[in-house]
Structures are given as C-alpha cells and as structure tokens.
C-alpha cells in the first residue's frame, strides 16, 4: 500500500517540474504515468476512471483546440491572408473549456483520495486545480494549478499508509 504514496508523490513532483526547459514535456508525461500507476494500485475503479477521463479529455480537447487555432492562423502563417479570428477564438475557447472540464475530473480524483486516506491536503489540491483552470483567463491560473501539484506532492508523501475502510 505504500507504493501509492511514492508513485503519486513522485508523479506530482515530476508534473511540477514541467517548467524545466527542453525536458519539461517528458517530465510531465512521466509524472502522469506515475500518478496513473499510483491510482491504479489503490484498487478503486472510479478513481482510476476519473483519472483516465482527465487524460482523455486533455488529449482530445487539446488536440481539437490546437487544430482550430492552427486552422484559424494558417492563412497568416502562409502569408496568403488574414487569420480567421472566429476560428482562432473558437479554438482558444475550446481549450479553456477543455481545461475546466479536465480540472473537474482531477478535482474528483483528489476529493476521492481525501475520502480514502483522510488526508485533507488532497482536497486542497483539487480545489487549486479547479481554481487554476478557471483563473487561467486572468493569467494567474497556471501558477495556482502549479501550486496544486506542489500540495498534491506533499499530500501523497504525508498520506497514511492504510486507506480508510469503505462505508
């Protein structure tokens, strides 16, 4: 049972290190995989499903948003005309909505971790993820979400070894 603490804590730390130049994306991917392994090891199907939904929404929504933004700016990139602000704006809006939906799934994961472990910091991490996604439009959301990963790392490393019994 101790594995979830180490895997989850390291996963959160690696995600925090996503800001490291050049290797940040690799560290993020490693962190997400470690976090997934930690959650899978807990044997709670809903917890792992919410995690997978968080990942899937990010991949599908992020790719669709990136495609719209690229399509909208392609004429300007090619030098054949002005960018389509409607398409680009739709892509940015889709990216924002995707981030909020992802944060809702991640908050559910961390709320369930709090319920299973009794560690209140998991609940705080979930709140920071959601607040970060909503505040992204103000420019401070990235910092708030990053703080959520710091809190999540501390929560994993300080969580109890044994889970609470299910009611």
UniProtKB/TrEMBL annotation:
Keywords, alphabetical? Membrane, Transmembrane, Transmembrane helix
Membrane-spanning segments: 12-39, 51-73, 85-107, 128-157
Q: Which Pfam families match?
A: DUF996
**Highest taxon in the source lineage:** Bacteria
Its name, as the record gives it, is DUF996 domain-containing protein
Q: Which species is listed as the source? A: Thermovibrio ammonificans (strain DSM 15698 / JCM 12110 / HB-1)
